[in-house]
Design goal:
37% of the residues lie in helices and 19% in strands. The chain is α/β, with parallel strands linked by helices. It has a single domain, classed as P-loop containing nucleotide triphosphate hydrolases (Rossmann fold, 3-Layer(aba) Sandwich). The strands form 2 sheets. The chain has a 3-stranded parallel beta sheet, with helices on both faces. The two termini are 20 Å apart.
Length: 150
């Protein structure tokens, strides 16, 4: 479905938890993208507290999709997110977006680097390359999501 949710060209515009119902008892929850948001530190810390509370208290959560820009190394907040979620024992699947902006060798190198960094924090992390522009990785991401929702 197109135009399901408003998107912004600027990162960090999601300020609240947004729930998308996919079945009677299944939801996809969009969390604030605070990593690159240009917001005051106080707001970023509030998001971190809210996110920690939500992720640690919702036993219904099947897994976490984390979206990271392939052109950048994981931030301290990205690594912290993995650590927060690791206590749940549930899987994390990372989408390295904007892969269309890099050469193939750079993509493969970044995939390896990001995987190595995140796996130091939690063994149930999987990382994949993704591009919404040329649809790279769409089938893999969809399969992972469907497996968690069924």
């Amino acid at each position: 479905q197109k135009k399901l949710a408003h998107t912004s060209k600027l990162p960090g515009r999601t300020r609240l938890l947004n729930f998308f119902k996919v079945a009677d008892d299944r939801f996809i929850v969009d969390l604030p993208g605070y990593g690159y948001a240009k917001v005051p530190e106080q707001m970023r810390n509030a998001w971190a507290r809210e996110l920690t509370t939500y992720l640690s208290s919702r036993h219904q959560i099947r897994g976490l999709f984390a979206v990271m820009d392939i052109r950048h190394a994981p931030t301290a907040l990205d690594e912290q997110l993995v650590e927060w979620f690791a206590v749940t024992g549930k899987p994390i699947h990372v989408l390295l977006t904007k892969s269309d902006k890099l050469k193939r060798t750079q993509v493969q190198n970044q995939l390896r680097v990001v995987s190595d960094i995140l796996l130091r924090h939690y063994s149930q992390v999987t990382v994949q390359v993704f591009s919404s522009l040329n649809r790279t990785g769409l089938d893999e991401a969809r399969s992972r999501l469907v497996s968690w929702l069924t």
